[in-house]
Design a protein that fits this description.
Blueprint lengths: L1 H32 L6 H24 L15 H36 L13 H4 L1 H24 L12
Helix pairs in contact: 1-2, 2-5, 3-5
Length: 168
């Protein structure tokens, strides 16, 4: 599922760049011809697309092991050492933080849907759909983290794993 979402996010990235380019051109062309060709909606679409890319793309990035890693010590560890760091980091940091973020955002998202929150800017867009991406993004991250944790667990606790991490 996260692989498919990652493919969609890639296309949304292109769309975001096109919207931003159009908005910049429209703004400067509008000044030149003395017409308002731009809108707050274009800016907000660009912001919303960036939010979707970040929130929904995080799990896909994690799936590809493309996330940011501080590897001062990690690089020097054996495969088993790396697997331990990955498993413990997933269990004690990634999953609890993601659960906390879902819990912390739930009330805001709920309230936003109840009042059908919209942008206060003229020509702005509704905000409640984009706020929904917050708990969805962290739920996808939890699911990917669980899969990753199981993978590392299986690697570490196979009966016939060698000390260098190679499974025979």
């Amino acid at each position: 599922m996260n692989k498919r979402i990652g493919h969609i996010v890639c296309w949304l990235t292109l769309f975001m760049v096109l919207v931003g380019t159009f908005n910049a051109i429209a703004r400067y062309l509008g000044k030149f011809i003395h017409a308002n060709l731009s809108s707050n909606a274009y800016l907000e679409i660009q912001w919303y697309l960036f939010s979707i890319i970040f929130l929904l793309g995080a799990a896909s990035t994690f799936r590809k092991n493309g996330h940011v890693r501080v590897d001062v010590f990690y690089e020097r560890l054996s495969e088993r050492g790396k697997a331990w760091i990955d498993l413990l980091g997933t269990v004690f940091f990634l999953i609890p933080f993601s659960v906390f973020m879902i819990w912390a955002s739930w009330g805001t998202v709920h309230d936003s849907w109840m009042i059908k929150e919209a942008s206060p800017d003229p020509g702005g867009l509704p905000r409640y759909p984009i706020k929904t991406c917050i708990p969805i993004g962290f739920l996808l991250l939890i699911l990917q983290g669980l899969l990753y944790g199981v993978k590392k667990w299986r690697f570490l606790f196979r009966q016939n794993a060698r000390s260098d991490g190679v499974v025979e």
